Amino acid sequence: MNRPTPDNVRVFVADFLNRKLRDRGQGPLNDLPDDYDVLSSGVPGLLAFVEMMMAAGEHFVGEINIENLNPEKMTIIGPSSTAVGKLWPGHF
Questions:
Q1: Cα–Cα distance, 5 to 72 (Å, whole number)
Q2: pLDDT for 35
Q3: How far is 17 from 28, CA to CA, in rounded Å?
Q4: What's the CA gap between 54 and 77, in Å, rounded?
Q5: What is the DSSP string of 45-89?
Q6: Residue-averaged pLDDT of the chain
Q7: What is the spatial distance between Cα 56 and Cα 36, in angstroms, rounded to a whole number?
């Protein structure tokens, strides 16, 4: 498992989104600012967003309990990157 620092989570999300874009024949994202709303961007649909969260849990902490995430901020890259990191025992 990888340590879920905000930067590592951001890289994971960017890679996931870029794979989805590549599957659609679109170009990659160059930047994910802190206020980037992953779900509102339309890159992943709702099911792909859930898939991304499950994949992040497997990649970083084994399971992400979304009950511990702020529902208003869980799709925004900055707050969600930090929140996922805090789910790691002895977080950064």
A1: 21
A2: 92
A3: 8
A4: 16
A5: -HHHHHHHHHHHIIIIIS---GGGS-TTTTTBHHHHHHHHHHTST
A6: 81
A7: 17
Instruction: Answer yes or no: are the C-beta atoms of 69 and 82 closer than 8 Å.
Output: no
CATH homologous superfamily of 6-86 = ACP-like (1.10.1200.10)
Residue 1: what pLDDT?
57
Q: What is the pTM of this model?
A: 0.79
> C-alpha distances in angstroms, 26 versus 11, 57, 71, 79?
19, 26, 29, 26
The H or E element that residue 17 is part of is helix 6-23
Tell me the per-residue pLDDT of 6-50, one tens digit each, with 9 for 90 and over: 888 888 989 999 998 898 888 888 888 899 998 888 888 888 888
- 1 contacts 61 by C-beta, under 8 angstroms: yes
For the segment 39-63, what is each residue's pLDDT rounded down to a tens digit?
888 888 888 888 888 888 888 766 6
